[in-house]
Amino acid sequence: MTVIAALPTSGPGAGEQFEQLYRSSAADVYAYVASLLRDRTAAEDVTALAFERAFRRRALFDVRRGTPRSWLFAIARNAALDELRKRRRTGALLHEIADPSTELEDLDSELAERRLLVREGLASLEPRDREVILLKFVGRLSNAELARVLRCSESNAGTRLHRAIERLREVCGVTR
Amino acid sequence: MSRDELNASEREELAALDRILAREPVGEQHLELAALVDSVRAGAPRMDPAFAERLDARLAAHRRRGGAAGARVARPGIRRLALAGSGLVAAAVAFTIVISSGVLSGGTTHPPAPANGPALSILPRKAPGATTTPTGATSAFAGSSVGAVPSTNLSVGRSLSARLVHRDSALTLATSPASMQSVANRIVAATEQRGGVVESSNVAIQGPASHASFSLAVPTGRLGSLIAALSSLASVRALNQNSNDITSSYNAEQARLADNVAARAALLKALATAATATQQASIQKQLNRLAARIAAEQRELDRLLGQGHTATLHVSVVAGASAKHAKASAGPFTTAFHRALHALEEILAIALVVLAIVLPFALTALALWWGATAVRQRARERAMRTA
User: Fold this and answer.
1) Which of B37, B64, B280, B366 pairs as cysteine with B274 (C-beta 3.0–4.6 A)?
2) Residue A58: phi, psi to the nearest 5?
3) Which positions ≥6 away from A93 have C-beta within 8 Å?
4) Which residues share a beta bridge with B236?
């Protein structure tokens, strides 16, 4: 994973830095947003919106308040939650994603069974637990970055993450 | 242990999770966690290549459209902005106070006009139902606040219900010898403008040894205004202000007068009933002595009341470098510095006024913005809970 320490807003490197952030994060942001919204079309819109918003607001990025990646995920999270609020108001239906990449036919039966179990277990988790697992596992955020996105302390983020993992294990029937 | 604290094995597991995500090797006990991570990541939705291309194009177009507009100057955080603003306001206030106090201009600013209020004025109130005996005395201070004060003879036998205070001040001014005559003329004019009189004056124009002195009488209520006006004519070297409460003297004199008036009334009665010429002559003699005493007491009362009504101001003008003269003879840089300082003072005063107007609106807007942000964030968290 490429780590971008800062996000210059001007100068010759500004465009390249943002491009680098986009290239390194786009797939993860999309995966996180799509998992949160469970709707491919909406996820695409929200992902694009998040990057556009990040580009517009790049001057506001403050390196002391987190990394560019955590800042980007916070923007994506807000955009996704706004989309959820809009859907709740309009009563739009959620369409569960059936990602072709997650087709399990080609895998050996044990692995396929485990992945199916985990996918179902993740879907059955409380949204807050599911979110923290997605941000960590898919977004690959550090605990400090996680805390920044979730607006809590780093120790609280760690606790929330650990409890979410325990619940995922529990619903998946996984033992250590 | 607090709710947020993890035990050692839990912390170790989270550390192992970070290593797994960084594709670093982990111990056997964490292989199950690695498998869990792998399953979650494998099940995560993947970006459709077609969407990836569309996203590239959309962002490229967005960057072309808003690249220049997007590259805004980095803004400082609200906290820094608030700190800077507070510091600026404090500095402006401090600077204005310092400049207004005259510290930077060498203490040559004019002293504030003394209070003209009733505290230092004379201020007997006319006693209701007091007997009046016109004396024909005239005041030299027509139109002054003294007009409200009753004449001495209006209240024989009654004490003052307010304090009677005599004020006596001395003001020393410094001006250039060349402007001595002009300053002297303006002192006289300012005194007369305020209903005062010049009791004595002495102006000597002798080059560097020029000097002038004045003894001025002015209605007590206008003393402060006169001092302020004279202070603006030249540089103030010294100002002494004294006040002397003469209420008790006035009341004692008035009591004596009342006694004598009563004694005279008794003698007049006795005169009317005197049987012999010898008795009449004796009473008449006593009446004559009393009349002389009453007249003297009346004069004393008038004098005391006059002292309360009238303040005296002794003005001395000496030749010397007044502040204005010093400014005039100062070099262009000093003059420019003083002017710049004055301009800065004016600007800061205006800035303070503007700030006083703008600040409440800005704070209200900030509070509204903060409230709206908090409400929106809460709504988002609610949306997450019900997702």
Assistant:
1) B280
2) -60, -25
3) none
4) B173
pLDDT, position A176: 65
Considering the entire predicted model, what is its pTM?
0.49
Q: What are the angstrom distances between the C-alpha of B63 and each of A49, B59, B67, B100, B209?
A: 13, 6, 5, 54, 82
Burial of B146 from C-beta contacts in 10 A (0-12 / 13-18 / 19+): buried
Contacts of B45 in chain A (CB under 8 A): 30-31, 34-35, 40, 43, 97, 99, 101-102
* pLDDT greater at residue B379 or residue B326: B379
Helix (H, G, I), strand (E, B) or coil at B18: helix
Residues paired with residue B123 on neighbouring β-strands, in sequence order: none
Domains contained in chain A, CATH given: 9-97 (1.10.1740.10), 103-176 (1.10.10.10)
**Closest chain B CA to residue A34:** B45
Average pLDDT over every residue of A131-150: 90
pLDDT tens-digit readout, B6-29: 888 888 889 999 999 888 888 888
Residues of chain A contacting residue B14, judged by C-beta atoms under 8 Å apart: 143, 158, 161-162
